[in-house]
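Inputs:
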Amino acid sequence: MIQVKLPDGTVKEYADGSTALDVAMSIGERLAQATIAAEVNGTVVDAMRPIDELAEGDGPIELSLLTTRDAKALGVLRHSCAHVMARAIMRLFDGVGLAFGPTTGNGFYYDFDLATPISEDDFPKIEAEMQKIVKEAEPFERFSMTRDEAVTFCRDLNQELKCEHIETGLADYDSLSFYRQGEFVDLCRGPHIPDAGRIKAFKVLSVAGAYWKGDASNRSLQRVYGTAFFSKDDQKEYLAQLEEAKRRDHRVLGKQLGLFNISNDVGQGLSLWLPKGATVRALLEEFIKKELMARGYQPVYSPHIGRVEMYETSGHFPYYRESQFAPIFGHDAGQLVDYWIRRSQEGDLSTEDEQQIAHTAELMGCGCACDALKAPSVDDKVNVLHTWEKTQERYLLKPMNCPHHVQMYKSQPRSYRDLPVRLAEFGTVYRHEASGQLNGLLRVRGLTQDDAHLFCTPEQVEAEFKDTLDLVKFVLESVGLDDYRIQLSKRDPNSDKYVGSDELWDNAESTLRRVLEESGLNFTECEGEAAFYGPKADFMVKDCIGREWQLGTVQLDYNLPARFDLEYIGADNKPHQPVMIHRAPFGSMERFVGMLIEHFAGAFPLWLAPEQIRICPVTDKALDYAEKVQQRFRREGFRVTIDRRSAKVNAKIRDAQLDLIPYMLIVGPKDEEQNAVSLRDRIAKEGETGGTDLGMMPIDAAVARLKEEVNALRVRQVVKSQFRSFETTDDEEQHEY
RNA sequence: GCCACCGUAGCUCAGUCGGCAGAGCGACGCUUUCGUAAAGCGUAGGUCCUCGGUUCAAGUCCGAGCGGUGGCUCCA
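Outputs:
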């Protein structure tokens, strides 16, 4: 007999080998029907699995039944649905290799190694096959075998990737579990739903490429995404919310509201800020400039290009070469010589090709080409070419502002009394992001950071870091962005991409952690996400469909000061090295405004709205008075337009409402008589839709009311997205499947 | 960059089997002069992404390129 303790505290006895389903049945048949899985001693397991397999010690086994109402059960359902999809695809295609098939926040995917491309056109037949499997409602049966047996078993099934995974990823496990459903068998940790009939709604959503184990050097797989629910209504609701979420996409709203434009005629990833978008940006810049002045920052400006040597010193070049625009060479042959150097270093240049390159370089006026060709070794050749290169001018479109600011720090001797020095600039940088990464304003190739670099003594680091964190928080709060996550991005101790000693890194990381802890902010730590020069505290925000993006960042840097030999004279009259803090509260203006558009669903608060007020004359006869009202509001500093169409006032109101204008002024003869306006608020009263008629009031009263709202930077409404994406389980867990 | 899909009027989109290029909204004109979410009528607007191929004939079929979307990888 086994003792089972239920969540309400009661302890009952059951026969050995009883399953959660048996327990459910003993309580009631309807409960048994609703039971999807169980949680035994805190682990989610199959409802059909004997409970005593999971007993720990002598005490009663803690059991809670997971029914269709539990979020954890939904995860189990979706993973089982991934198996159903894989089974369907194996029936429809030959030679399907199975990789991983985990759940995600909103559904599941399964990766397949399959030569035939799966396209969206295949979805209906995949879904039809899945429907058959669901209808058959066969059970998921669990069984285990030893590692050796498992490898042989998978090899017999022609499941190479599973074999590889057993031998590498699962090397620590002696016994491995499999699940069988009809003819389909898969290495899988589980758990699963009792039978496929529990899947009441599912949909194959998309197909994409993915790399085996997430490594771009591995073979590429086809990843098919889908989702599943316990009821058709739930799925319908989810899909509707997803559609709704896409309507607040900043690219859609940016076009609709005339905020920005990205045109191929200008270039991929190069944004054009149209007047309305530029107004939002300018207001944000003005807002933060004021705050920076108050916090002791000094404005600086730097050019858009800088010598390559400077970025070699900083380490940005050639480390990030692949994601930078090619250098600008002062000499015609510069690019060619550069290419020659790289190919020589790679060692795959044929003699014939090299002679051709040398000849062309010579022709273009590169005096060293002959010498380089005659050099006895690759090193010597590269040396000759490098020496020549360095006598030529080479510029880089700046990928970061820090080297420029470092040079400003260096432009004069510094005393400890001068520190901290805080240099701030809206610095525009250019990065050659791979084309597949570009995404509206959220990922662009030319971006402006609200950047600043703080140079301080080691003793000042904590206070300065704390102040910058406070600044980022202040900035986000002022626009009502409270749904963010803070991530402490640390180095990956097993990687060599970072500069500086382990001691410096440990020191920097623990300083960041300490200040974050002291500030009482919630944060998670993440290895391998640091910048190459130092750890960061990143502020992460989700876009309309739940993808996470980094906005604000505060970075601690002991390395660039060393690389550039920065110093200040201390109280001891000896030189010391300052510490640098890089920080950008918005991150970039592009990404921040992009996120802000989605945050507000295009409906900016009054202080940020590009068009704050629209005057809607009741008839053309009221146009003259409308002009007078516009003049007055303009003089008071408002951005105000007049709808001059001869349409009915209802139509004008409707359009202003759809254009998300915060306030409308309805003006007609009645208003003119009393030197008044009729104010309409875009925001509806609680529980109503549409806007609110605030009634007729003297112009002065309307001006005062709106001025107060602007000056307070009031955020009256953030249209909450109905769409929620769920946290995904971490990778390690996913790969257990 | 990789995989899949997509590219038609300013916007959103339809276009069947290869056979005259379409709708709604917007813009413009005329009529209407209206008080809190859409007045009526009319007009203009096209390199069907680009280049090449197949064909009597290509928006439609084929190839290449450019661009976009979703995902992967990357992200100073």
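Remarks. The domain at 2-67 of chain A is CATH 3.10.20.30 (Ubiquitin-like (UB roll)). The radius of gyration of chain A is 32 Å.
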